Amino acid sequence: MRRRELLRLLATGAALQLAPSKWFAFAREAHGLIANRKSLRTLDPHQDATIKALADMIIPRTDTPNASDSGVSDFIDLILTEWYEASERTHFLEGLAAVDSRMKTLFGKNFIDCSPDQKSQIMVELGAKMLADAPPGGRHWASDAPSPPTNFYSGFRRLTLTAYYTSEAGATKELHFEVIPDQYQGCNITSETKETPKQP
Predict the structure, then answer these.
(1) Which of 67, 146, 150, 189 has the most CB atoms at less than 10 Å from its CB?
(2) pTM of the entire structure?
(3) Overall domain count for the chain
(4) Can you spell out the DSSP letters for 63-97?
């Protein structure tokens, strides 16, 4: 698979629709791209921390890893850097900054410095706006669409979920995806279990 095609599937979330065997191969290749990078290339430290905090509100840590444990910010940085056009990247970063701006208006501090209850309040607002901005009839953004969603939170949520469920943590601990089952237990018929013909 060509690198740009791989990144397009990542950004759109279309990878999650692949058959399990193809999905696993895709996930390994995608996260291999992330593992080979030395540092963030688009996000600054504050943006990185904000993305982790926002993503962890979507997928918190329970008995399974949270979103930031799966490397969500590295994943988003990869997509922003290598797949998004400049205008799309700017739109995403402006949407991220708008979250901080809203939190400063409400609580006088950035998102990462707010309490869980305060963070929950903005997440509810973002979700409501996402629904209000959704296309009529519940039409989803097609995997071959030319650009990401215009609603910041819609795009952010898609990237977060894709990052998580294509990661090793999300695939194995949340989806319980097994590449090779632990063992194969065939039907073992022995002479003792074979049905003997009835005597006339």
Answers:
(1) 67
(2) 0.71
(3) 1
(4) SS--TGGGTHHHHHHHHHHHTS-HHHHHHHHHHHH
